[in-house]
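Supplementary notes for students who missed Thursday's class. We covered one full example, reproduced here. Read the sequence, then the structure, then the short commentary at the end.
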Amino acid sequence: MGKRSILPLLIGLASLVLIVAGLRAMSGLLSPILLSLFIVLVTSPIMQWLKRRGSPGWLAYTLVVLGVIAVGLVFVLFLAASLTQLSAELPTYRTLVEAQLQSLGQEISKFGIDAQDILQLEWFQPARIFQYLFSFVTALLSAISNIGFTLLIFIYMLASAANFSNRLERSLISDLPMLERFRDFSSSISIYLLIKSWLGVMTALCQIILMWILGIDFAVLWGVFSFLFNFIPNIGFYISLIPPLLIAILTLGWLKALIFVAGYTLINNFFDIAVAPRFLGQGLDLSTIVTFLAVVLWAWILGPIGAFLALPLTVMVKKLLLEPFVETELLGVLMGSGRQEEEG
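Structure (token representation):
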């Protein structure tokens, strides 16, 4: 057998770099398009269900579109109002931070340690702490600033979804394996997003009740963030925990803050470990390291929206671009969780 040439590999890597660079350069346009696509994947089964229940096509379409627009407007208005209230409370929180730091400095001084050098560190400064907090809270609102454009794309996508699906099936009728992959991808992503949304709502409601009982400020806002970051694997939970935890420490003290962390974690783990596997089954067949790297990569390419869409986008690449071709099939298999092979 002759030696294999490294040239195809180099060409493939160079092509990959160009594709990633192009995606990153077009992130401003791609983000609302991809977000609209996955909203269609979530809402299309709802529209089909309405049709099966006897609703005319135009009525089912209208109800779904109006529902999505209503949810989007309520979401944006709620975030805007909550951020306004939060910005008004920042001076109060800044004062509490300064008091906490002074108390910490006194405790450190009891051990004969000069606390001034520590307290003067950049990450100990109250202004810096709340600058990070406010930047975190406003990041999502900035990411969805083009929500009107996203809704417009969604309306047109949903209107042509059924026609596009029929044309796609006619085009791939001679390639049944690829057609089956498209169907499997669409079905699995739709089910995953629907169930993940339902679980996220239940988790957020329980966490809002917990924060309301403990008296944490802006409980509903942090619940909404918990729902949103539920779609980011591995790190989403920790990101959503930081703001309410900081508020709890400042306003309620360390004891209630620890109770909050324990309850928040227990609620999240209950839905993630006990409830989710019953409904999500094998999930999206991605290994843990792939899910983590997918969040980092897609967030770098598309910005904040990329972090939320990381798993669906990675599954799309795996099922439609890697697994169907002999040259990249092995890479698609390596990205999987390996559970199916172990069960087999």
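Commentary. The longest helix spans residues 57-109. The mean pLDDT is 78. If anything here is unclear, bring it to office hours.
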